[in-house]
Design a protein that fits this description.
Blueprint (H helix, E strand, L loop, with lengths): L2 H21 L9 E6 H5 L4 E7 L4 E10 L10 E14 L7 E15 L15 E18 L4 E19 L7 E21 L32 H7 L5 E3 L19 E3 L15 H16 L4 E12 L5 H23 L6 E8 L1 H14 L2 H16 L3 H10 L4 H9 L1 H4 L3 E9 L3 H13 L4 H12 L8 H10 L3 H13 L3 H26 L1
Parallel strand pairs: 9-13, 11-12
Antiparallel strand pairs: 1-2, 1-8, 2-3, 3-4, 4-5, 5-6, 6-7, 7-8, 10-13, 11-13
Helix pairs in contact: 6-7, 11-12, 11-13, 12-13, 13-14, 13-15, 14-15
Length: 528
């Protein structure tokens, strides 16, 4: 029988073994199955694949296959033609934070190697001759797994193996003269860098080992969504409504009525002045608040100041050019004050002179119409009619001053214009790093509120990707509970309870009572 026929028969047997091993997975739902590829093996131009099966929280099994068929011509060198089959068994040290694992594996390989320089000075004799044969080995290894996302992990593995090999030696890499047949024991290192895909799904239903009478369990674990962590800016916003997310920012236009924005902050200026005095009215308190808020956000790595919007205003009284200049100078005075305190670049400011505040003035008139006596309300309505019908601002102002012999204008100066003479508006817009963990935790929490077993297992998979986040512990414990892994649930609830989570404390109490009932039921069942 020719060498090629022998190789084909060996290949057929190995493929049969691989198919048989894969058939073992057919009754297991995809939730427990992983597919991975060894990137280090790829670097040696060898296509490879590992299929893994998670059998329990601590144990998994897998089958690795690698096949490099080229070059097919024995006269071509160098060559590392081979087939490798390696089943393995892994023990994960922690079923919650499944990072570390230890394992054993069996290795079989049929090889045809010639004139190859292996790294680290290994197998030097292969550099000058050809060897063709088989080997079998038993290995041990240690590995560590890092989650990359919802379905992906990366693993690093290192270990060693000892085994037995039988091969034929040939005189050179491309000739066929046989020198000897060698049988020997050997030792070799193992290493892998695996990219792993976790197939979503759910594990198969398990059959109870023994019949146990379990009391009814009406209690449903408590699990809640967690708030999106919006950084220091989001925390400050709760007590400082002057802060707003940048998605709500809009440039100023003169139809906008700033006084309706109750969350903004205002500073005040003396009549017809643009100099900012910290001791004038409430300016000191407001300015200190603005500087403190901005400083805290700038020191935070998860949030940032995006826009500081400042708008200076002037009253409708007086020449238009002078009021326009006064408004922009007031806005710039406020900007320069903040910059002197915090060294903020101009690019972060949206500083605008709002000119004469006609929109503000009109809005105040409308409020007064509803609040005053019928006679004064009628006069103020006349003023509103003038504003609506006259577009020329200078003419409009003159008409207002002459109304009713100046009586209406005196009322306006006393009750309305006093506030407009000292208006300076400021609002701070922020942004933050998206809280992807909260999104995952909340998506999983929604799945846990359903009666769907598949949803519970999918929630468990989601939560395992964010298990290092303390906010996920109560939800993770709930997922373990609903998936039948009570010991893992206890561990999560205890850790969450230690962090002060009230829901976790209640879930822990209920689960401990539940496990006590199960234990008592087993005792009663055995006595009967």
């Amino acid at each position: 029988m020719s060498t090629k026929h022998i190789q084909r028969r060996r290949m057929a047997r190995l493929l049969f073994i691989a198919v048989l091993f894969s058939w073992m997975f057919t009754d297991v739902h995809a939730q427990q199955v992983t597919i991975s590829n060894n990137l280090l093996y790829d670097a040696w131009l060898t296509p490879n694949l590992r299929v893994g099966l998670r059998m329990s929280p601590h144990w998994s099994a897998g089958l690795t296959g690698g096949f490099r068929p080229w070059p097919t011509n024995d006269e071509t060198t160098p060559k590392w033609r081979h087939l490798l089959i390696s089943p393995d068994l892994r023990y994960w040290t922690d079923s919650v934070n499944v990072h570390h694992f230890f394992g054993v594996n069996l290795i079989y390989s049929h090889f045809n190697v010639a004139e190859v320089k292996f790294p680290l000075g290994l197998y030097k004799s292969v550099r000058d001759e050809r060897r063709q044969g088989d080997l079998g080995a038993l290995g041990v290894f240690y590995g560590y797994s890092w989650p990359l996302g919802r379905y992906w992990n990366i693993e690093a593995v290192i270990g060693a193996a000892v085994g037995y090999t039988r091969f034929h030696r040939y005189e050179c890499g491309h000739c066929g003269k046989k020198l000897a047949t060698v049988k020997k024991l050997f030792a070799m290192p193992q290493a892998a860098l695996n990219i792993v895909y976790n197939i979503p799904g759910r594990p198969a239903k398990t059959v109870p080992v023994e019949p146990v009478i379990i009391p009814p369990e009406p209690y449903v674990p408590v699990v809640r969504t967690v708030p999106d962590f919006t950084g220091r800016a989001g925390q400050l916003q709760k007590d400082n409504p002057v802060l707003t997310h940048v998605s709500k920012y809009k440039p100023y236009d003169r139809t906008r009525i700033l006084r309706r924005d109750k969350d903004a902050l205002y500073v005040h200026f003396p009549l017809s002045k643009s100099e900012l005095h910290t001791e004038f009215r409430e300016n000191k308190e407001v300015l200190e608040r603005i500087v403190d808020i901005t400083r805290q956000i700038m020191a935070d790595t998860t949030s940032s100041v995006k826009v500081i919007q400042i708008i200076g205003l002037a009253s409708i009284e007086g020449p238009i050019p002078g009021n326009e200049k006064l408004a922009i100078n007031r806005a710039l005075a406020l900007q320069h004050y903040v910059q002197d305190q915090l060294q903020i670049p101009d690019s972060l400011f949206d500083t605008v002179g709002g000119g004469e505040a006609w929109a503000e003035f009109t809005d105040q008139l409308q409020e007064r119409v509803a609040a005053e006596s019928p006679q004064m309300a009628a006069e103020l309505q006349q003023a509103l009619d003038i504003i609506a019908s006259e577009d020329d601002l200078n003419v409009r102002e003159r008409k207002l001053k002459r109304m009713n012999g100046g009586r209406t204008w005196n009322y306006i100066k006393e009750h309305i214009l006093s506030d407009q003479r000292n208006s300076g508006y400021i609002r701070i817009y922020y942004d933050y790093v998206p809280d992807t963990n909260a999104k995952v935790i909340n998506e999983a929490s929604e799945l846990l509120t359903t009666d769907c077993s598949d949803c519970h297992h999918e929630a468990l998979r989601l939560l395992l990707t964010v298990r290092s986040d303390e906010r996920a512990l109560n939800a993770l414990g709930t997922a373990y509970w609903l998936c039948g892994q009570q010991q893992e649930a206890l561990d999560c609830f205890r850790r969450a309870a230690a962090n002060g989570n009230a829901d976790a404390k209640e879930n822990l109490r209920q689960l401990e009572q539940h496990l006590t009932r199960i234990s008592n039921a087993r005792i009663n069942n055995s006595n009967n």
